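With this grant's support, the team has encoded backbone shapes as discrete tokens. A representative record is reproduced below.
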Amino acid sequence: MSSARRVYETPELMSSIFSFMEKKDQCKLLTLERSFFPSVVEEVWGSVPYDIVKDILDLYNPRGRIYVYAVRDIVITDPELDLNPTIQFALISTLLDDFPNLRTASRKIDYLAHLSSSTWKSTFDNLWSLKVEDGGQWIVVNLRTEWLFESEMDLDELEPPVFVADGMWIEHYIDVVFDAPSSALGIGIGLGGAGVNESQRYIDYLTDFNRRHPRICTLDTSNVGLPLSDLARIISFRHPGHLNITKVRAASVGGFTMVEFESFCRRAGNSELEVLHLDNQRGSGGVPRNLLDFKRMIKAIVEGFPNLISLEIPISITRTTPAYAQGSNFVPVTEIEVLKPDELTVAPLRKLKHFAISVYGQGWGRGGVIDRYAFPVDTMAKTLAVAIAPAPPDEERCRFGINNKTQVFLGYNVSKELDNSVHDFHRLSEYNILSNVNLLAGPPPYTR
């Protein structure tokens, strides 16, 4: 028997070969030869989307059963499926009954189509996931539930559904979303009347271990403006048996001093926070810090939140005191300081995969409104290259971006330019170049 024939007649080797083929080629093999079918069907049907795999349940024939038994992983992205957690849990149980050899499954959502703030929602891995362990003896289920805190609701009576099933270990996570009353919208930190009362009710509930539900781990203040001091109180809450906050979105943090921001990073700082999205969408209580404070802000964040995966902050390109020598109220780029490696008291961020700056400010000068500003991409990139470590070669690198929320032209493709510049400086740091040159100068010229 030839070597080729021995390989051909060894199912384990043929399965290994099939696994390196593309799906379209594997599908052709299903009808090419009868002996290939059992091995190829495991590759073709091993991991399939739910909208495809649910159709084979109607195939009441031997071949249909083979497909069903081949399914090991299912990913559900159907936007029409109900998000109610009770219905979701029923679906989980149905999957386990319908697909005997299922090992993993998850539910993902196209948040771009369903929710505002798609970047924030994309930080959630799955709405739920399951994994079959120990040969089917245990089924581990991670399930997320979103609570919308609405006005006039009795927070103490809130209780999520209780999910219990034989053979399942269920980890339930609760995401809290504030919903401000209409009278408070757009007022932010200066919430008047019912707005102040609603905000304080939320804060009191989330910082009282006797009342707060122990599975709350995510906070989205939505359109409610909260001072950084109150936000720090909620994030820093600790009590045995309670989950810590791991994801935070505060869309209306308003104006704050640098002392207040550094205090927030110290008080709220913890090693478990993975997502921190701060913004000033409603112009709450003043303008964000400007570019002159960017270095201090990044330094405070790095030293307070060492395990961030996603970070967004607001920044202004203008300052309240006009620089008449410059002819406008824009921040002079020559006055922006760059963070140096020896100024950090901790290691740079190593897990960050997403960073974005939301830019605010309206330019004006002696002649009126000014609609152009040369955004200091290189200067910002140098600080970020020091504060955020480059990703290892086998990992996805961090993506850097700029959300221009002004009427001012900042330059062509500034997001792409910032992303490229940070990674250019990361490459320089691999050869220890950054530590040997003046960071305020441009990168050294390329030489062969």
